[in-house]
Specification:
Layout: H1 2-17, E1 26-31, E2 35-37, E3 41-50, E4 57-66, E5 74-80, E6 85-93, E7 101-110, H2 126-129, E8 138-146
Parallel strand pairs: 2-8
Antiparallel strand pairs: 1-3, 3-6, 4-5, 4-7, 7-8
């Protein structure tokens, strides 16, 4: 009898303390070729999303590409308040043989319980951090340009 009562109480306690363990998934993706021919056509698809709910959305979505190894950058997209997911595709011509083409993408997530956060869910410090492509979190793709 003591065992039965103990098990019932334990069951009630475990049920009362059970918490939904939903981990938030924030993502940034870049789909790009690893290698292209010099002057060849490059197709890149980028996206960002969140499943946090509670009003969180992709507040800022910013991407650029470079065909000269990062010396100069051209815009792909700068979108604001894009809902829970946003994406863009771009086609450009690769640069010279041996000079890498680069893609960089970053997103800020906002509007939810967590406030303005980066890809890792860390608070964004807006005073100067947005100009720094390392904070908030940025994803990069490197496309090697060969001579074929």
């Amino acid at each position: 009898m003591k065992t039965s009562l103990f098990l019932r109480l334990l069951s009630i306690i475990l049920t009362a303390t059970a918490v939904s363990a939903h981990a938030v998934n924030r993502n940034i993706t870049i789909a790009a070729p690893v290698e292209v021919s010099a002057g060849g056509s490059v197709t890149v698809a980028i996206s960002a999303g969140t499943d946090a709910g509670d009003g969180e959305e992709v507040g800022f979505f910013h991407a650029e590409y470079s065909t000269d190894g990062g010396k100069t950058w051209a815009p792909i997209v700068f979108a604001r308040n894009s809902g829970s997911a946003v994406g863009k595709e771009i086609v450009f011509l690769a640069g010279a043989k041996g000079v890498k083409s680069l893609i960089r993408v970053r997103a800020a997530f906002r509007g939810g319980k967590a406030g303005d956060v980066d890809l890792l869910g860390k608070p964004i410090e807006w005073n100067g951090s947005w100009e720094n492509w390392r904070a908030p979190c940025t994803k990069y793709a490197v496309i090697y340009v060969n001579g074929r």
